[in-house]
Amino acid sequence: MTATTNRTGTSRRFPSGAAGLALILLVAAAALAFVAARGPERPRTLQDRTRAVAAGLRCPVCQDLSVADSPSSVAGQMRATISRDLRTGQTPGEIRARFVAAYGEWILLAPPRSGINLVAWIAPFLLLVGGIVVAAAAVERWTAGRASVWDGGEQKRQEPQPSLSDDDRQLLDRAMSKMGEELE
Predict the structure, then answer these.
(1) pLDDT of 1 above 50
(2) What's CA 140's distance to the chain center, in Å?
(3) Measured between alpha carbons, how far is 58 from 68 in angstroms, rounded to an integer?
């Protein structure tokens, strides 16, 4: 715990562990942001470039695997076609477009970022933001119920007082008096 002095001259303690944890989380977030902004390393060899294109295409035989990961003969033929097209100078976008023309958009493992497919890209972000807002509101409501009162430089916790209606209060008094009679 670290102590600081406020303007009234009284000291207040706050946990230094929380500040350290906040600093560590900030550094980790900055490192992740840097890596995300930099992106993946560009493939250099023909084999790496072929794998990069094939990883974005769905295998027509075993549809839960990419062409790069599928052991099927169709995926092997597709990898050979991709490799041949890359050697002739076609771009990865042109190769993907040719497979989309032959099989339809379902061949792409990741939906294109346009039209109605844009919802698939935006929805996770919106859900994350919504979750953060709900969590912040819950924390605010939780901390508002534990209001603190400053009295003479010392912080005293003011516990919330439950409010009972007159009928509930009478019912509680009767139950308490019955309980006291039974204990005697």
Answers:
(1) no
(2) 20
(3) 9
Based on C-alpha coordinates, what's the Rg of the chain?
A: 32
Domain assignment present for 128: yes
- CATH code of the domain in which 63 resides: 1.10.8.640
Q: How many domains does the chain have?
A: 3
DSSP letters for 83-124: HHHHHTT--HHHHHHHHHHHH-GGGBSS--SSGGGHHHHHHH
Tell me: do 50 and 103 sit in the same domain. yes
Q: Is residue 143 a part of any domain in this protein?
A: yes
Query: Do 100 and 125 fall within a single domain?
Result: no
Please state the pTM of the whole predicted model: 0.48
Domain range for 135: 118-157
How many CA atoms lie less than 13 Å away from 183 in the CB half-sphere?
Answer: 6
The Cα–Cα gap between 89 and 85 comes to 7
Distance of CA 78 to the CA centre of its chain: 35
Out of 2-6, 16-20, 51-55, 116-120, which region has the weakest mean confidence (pLDDT)? 2-6
Query: CA-CA distance, 28 to 30, in Å (whole number)?
Result: 5
DSSP state, 69?
Answer: T
